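Protein Record: Sequence and Backbone Structure Tokens
======================================================
Tokens: labelled as protein backbone structure tokens, with as many entries as the chain has residues.
Question of interest: how does this chain fold, as expressed in backbone structure tokens?

___
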Amino acid sequence: MRPALIAALFLPVLLAPIRAQDDGAGVERTFSDALALFERGQFAAAAARFDSLCERVPDHARSTAACIMAARAHARSYRPARSRALLERFPERFPGSRYAGEAAMLLGDVLVKLGEPRGAWKPYGLAWSAATEEGDRASALARLDSLARGEPDIRILDSLVSQPALLPCAAAVLLGCCEDAVARRNPRRAEDALRLLAPRALDAGQRARRDAARQRIAAAAAPARIAVVLPAPFDDLERNLVVRDLRDGLLTALDMHRQLGGAPVETELIVSSSTDSIRRVLRRLAGEERIVGIIGGVFSADASLLSRAASGCGVPCVIPAATAEDLATAGGNIFQLNTPFAVRGAVLAEYLATRNPVPRVAVLAPIETFARAIASAFIDRAKELSVPIEIVSWYAPGTKDYRSQYKTIAGRIPPDDSAAVLFLPVPSREQAAAILAGARAAGVRATLLGAGDWNHPALFTTSGMEGLRMEFESDYAVHTGFSQYLAFESAYRARTQRDVTRHAVFGYDAARFFLNALPADPQDRGALLRRLRAVYIGLRSPIDLSTGQANRGINIMTVQGGRISRLTTIPAE
């Protein structure tokens, strides 16, 4: 929220009369200081001031505004759970408040950020109902509409459409879902929306939109075709298993799409290993009108072959798992869903730049391997953002004893400096384990910020982790309790008789991302290319192509008591 808008929102509260029994000057000063900190982007410090005010004078005229601003500050300082707790208690603490709609809207946003979009339906509905300004109603409606478009089971809207006070809002959302489903040639989803609307009293305009949607549902279309291009078998068993799992995850997603009545889609599976053979295949595909796109490229080598061959052919090409840095630069039709390593380093520097105060940083990184690319990108972006890097210590890959590196770092950042950050990109689980052992032995108290190959629970279950604070980026953070995941897990097991793996989820997300972007006319490749530049919340990680063709969305994980959990998700700026 811009400073001018914050001031306008809370000006009436700032000017409200102060009761005689309160320390008016102190409350006024605390609130003003906290608001100034918020406007300067010092969100953690602002949250502490607002929290203190809420606790000290819970019944003061400032308390309502202080509670909302505390929730906003916590959300902006990567503590959405604290923000949620404040907002869920808001109706009970401040019944009848004129800021009820503002609090409900913010609660919905926080729940979405926490990965609980289904919990956001009710708060957004309440925000719409409580709104007195048309702009606020439109904002709540837009959020509900966005949730509805990302929700596989549209019947969840029944809880909204059944409430008379929310019927106009719910009807608008359902009609939007219906029209979107028709545009995506998903008749079953459109019909589910129409069934929910059928018994409701709609106005003339809504009835006209409903009838038009019914007519369009009746129009059948020939199935679109997606080419799945995978590398030929390797001599390496592990690589073959990765290809197998990604392929089966992708094909399971397409099966589920058909079973749910999605737009008719056929699949052509192509296995190829040379540049010439891929080019021949792509020339053929580009000439077939019903081929709407290509999904392929598992490892950087085969993905590079595919991206170079697909460059300029006009067929949208989605690369699910490869992380090479130059894939998406091959052509305007190439989209890379797994975040390149250089992008991860830059985004982590941006993450540190949001902290208040901005921490002093030491970097410990290998002089070779992909972790070097992460470190270099981190250092370059940190310098641009004025994040203070006190020292960079390089080591040879395979190093097992880090005493000399930690001693060198201690010369610039003492081991007991808990306000500092030690940035640790690693190329392997074994390297991460050795670095952790070194940090324990050196008595490091700085926050350890990892990048690369850190997401292994067994790394953090050994004794000695108690004194270490660990955060790291990850391209894999599955919410296994989500209905969407459970549906995929059931379908995948039925298809393969195997458990879901990391790369199976990558395949599923790639297929869902592509299907989500299909336009009304699948042969309109230009429209599909435009729709692929979007944000999609997948099962394992966000896919954020809103600012380019390579994914910039990553998860930040934290470790507490040996347990890994998601701390926050960083979208593209």
